Amino acid sequence: LSEAIGYLKRLVQLQPENSDAWIAVGVAENRNSDLEQSAVSLRKAVELAPGNAFAYRNLGGTLLTLGRFEEARSTLEKASKLNPNDQGTWYGLGQAYFSLDQLTESEEAFRKIIELDPESRIAEASRREISRIAEKAFRTRGVGGVRPDAIEYCAEAMKIFRTMDNQQLGPILMELAQMGSGGLDIH
Asked: Fewer CB near the last or first residue (10 Å), C or N of the chain?
């Protein structure tokens, strides 16, 4: 990796206006855990090619890793506008929103991934993230009053239950009945 970075840096010296070369340098620096330098290189790529969604996506991912969530959100939103069918961009954007406690927006981003390709690995990871959002929202909002999000998740569970046969459904119903008899522990 260090050798590759050396060659890539030589390339940007020879072709300083080559945005793809700057992206390659930034990605390599990121993989080499040189995140600050990666952000510098990827910013150069964005400056040279402001219509390149891949440059924005990689810059957003680097900023996310650096903990610069607001800047990552803004950058990834630009990437999502440039390439609205890129699941990787939506995943990073969902994480940025989550880190900023923008849970509704985060869930929408993860649902977009599932809509684009429900069978992909990233869609499966997005389903886990949606569960994490629900848990965070539940804990943040506390109990008491009508919970539209809880109703929505129960309705989604009912849709899944309808696809199961009695043998699959039996153990789930038994567990719910046992838990429900003593009250559900939200924690």
From this structure: C
- What are the C-alpha distances in Å from 181 to residues 53, 174, 178? 52, 11, 5
Question: Cβ atoms within 10 A of the Cβ of 96, count?
Answer: 27
Confidence of residue 187 (pLDDT cuts 50, 70, 90): very low
Can you state the angle between helices 121-141 and 103-116, rounded to 10 degrees?
160
Pairwise CA distance, residues 129 & 92, whole Å: 11
Are the C-beta atoms of 46 and 62 separated by less than 8 Å? no
The mean pLDDT of the chain is 89
For residue 128, which amino acid is it?
R
- pTM value? 0.74
CA–CA separation, 62 vs 142, rounded Å?
34
pLDDT recorded at residue 168: 87
